[in-house]
Amino acid sequence: RKCASREGSNGNSLYCPDARDLKRSDLKHFQLHWARGEPIIVRHVLETARGLSWEPMVMWRAVRQVQQVKNSTEYNFLKVQAIDCLDWCEVDINIHQFFKGYLEGWFDRANWPLMLKLKDWPPASKFEEELPRHGAEFICALPFKEYTHPRDGILNLAAKWPKELLKPDLGPKTYIAYGLPQELGRGDSVTKLHLDMSDAINILTHTADISLTSQQRKDLSKLKQKHFAQDQWEFFGVEIADEDTETQSDRVGLKSKKRKQAKFRSRSPKQEEAQVSGASSEGQSSDGEKIFAGCSDTEAAQSNKEAELEEVAEATEGGKEEILDNAAGEAVLKKEDEAIDNAKNGKIDSDECCEHEASSHASGCFEGSEHYDGGALWDIFRREDVPKLQEYLGKHFQEFRHIHCSPVKQVIHPIHDQTFYLMEDHKRKLKEEYGIEPWTFVQKVGEAVFIPAGCPHQVRNLKSCIKVALDFVSPENVDECIRLAEEFRLLPQNHRAKEDKLEVKKMTIHAVNKTVEDLELLLSTC
User: Fold this and answer.
1) Which long-range contacts does 62-68 make (Cβ < 8 Å, 24+ apart)?
2) Mind listing the pLDDT tens digit for each residue in 89-102?
3) Stretch 226-233: mean pLDDT, rounded?
4) What is the pLDDT of residues 363-383, one digit of tens each?
5) 361 vs 181: CA distance, rounded Å
6) Helix (H) or strand (E) segment spanning residue 360
7) What is the set of domains in the chain, with CATH numbers?
8) Vertex 166 angle, CA 165 and 169, to 5°
9) How far is CA 515 from the centre of its chain?
10) What angle do CA 235, 241, 246 make, to 5 degrees?
11) How much is the pTM?
């Protein structure tokens, strides 16, 4: 499958076998690409399993039944925690309301969509305990089990960990989140740019369309124009006039309000409302009232000495998680300088700018990216491109939005901070300035994506998605895992990335010991 257009490269297409046709000889083909540090996409993996449903309410009922059998009182059946992708803070929500939004969508009074990600449900450490049938289904669907099987994978170093010792948490883990094909620019359902210390496999098990009405599309376009205008003003000092408004402050002054409870409408005729209780990601409640039109709460509005602009899309006080609201809320013109010059001359067509979507680029240029059957847009960078990627982010970091929806002020590590998501405009500029581009493709239901350790990647949901992921450690990438462990160790003590502890050196020692024991046992029986 063609996933990039790098000149002079023979690595633009990714190995994409069909799980239904895999033979033992395909393992060597897999290893050829895997040793090069290339991602691999395996199609139709769910068709090799037993056919268990991954519908969200089927999973919910399965968890409830297990808890009822255990007579568990510590598990709250109705209340779950989710992450609001607009401000990256936690909210408490009823599980049925969450899944209603998963299937139909929630929108605020200005028709701005609410993007939620279910947080740690069921808990990653208890996935196979809470969902035993789904856990078995997932293991059954894993391709190339020599590498991926968490207990019996002969080439998975993590499988050699002694049973009597506490094992690092490698999954499986579910990722359940809303999604839209439109690139919002603010509050998109994304996994921000990061890299993992280990290898990983990610299977898309279920999707649901959240379609927009014509009125919602129209309202969304207007709001995106306001965001675009604010970005041009804050990043480049360019004021974009508009026929319908007289001043910049009128156009962009989407008043930010604190929230404690926000009411969101479904798109159903009944216009039902979901009560969402806000909480900071530190677990503290956030005072305030409501958020609308892509705006979140703040401790205090940040003054702007340049103009009357009010802050848009601000975050709750504190918060361990960080906002990622990107520089170009919409795709800006082909070149930054052209955008500035045209804006000064009054030549920017804001409607044209705001109608561009990130996913349209993928669908026009890459195979397998049709939105009717695709669920998640992936960008995976090559390891050798990491220095240039970091240099680009270091140069342009102030063009990205962050906590309080303000331009990023400080970067500790461009990738490990997990605060950036590169929209289409930034990916274009990255290629123009540094000559690098990621593998870009759309993952469909039933496709397994293999991500090599050390490859930075980001994901945006084009639909509501349920993904299940598992970490593993392959012999080909153990050196990279050790290098990354040392890199993570050098981060500040309170850096969020330091929470990820793989103990790969211990894992390697245990794997060698286990191999020696197996060889000795084999020789003794000969």
Assistant:
1) 62/130, 62/131, 62/133, 62/134, 63/122, 63/130, 63/131, 66/129, 66/130, 66/131, 66/132, 67/130
2) 888 999 889 999 99
3) 81
4) 444 344 444 578 999 999 999
5) 12
6) helix 358-365
7) 14-143+170-468 (2.60.120.650)
8) 140
9) 37
10) 120
11) 0.79
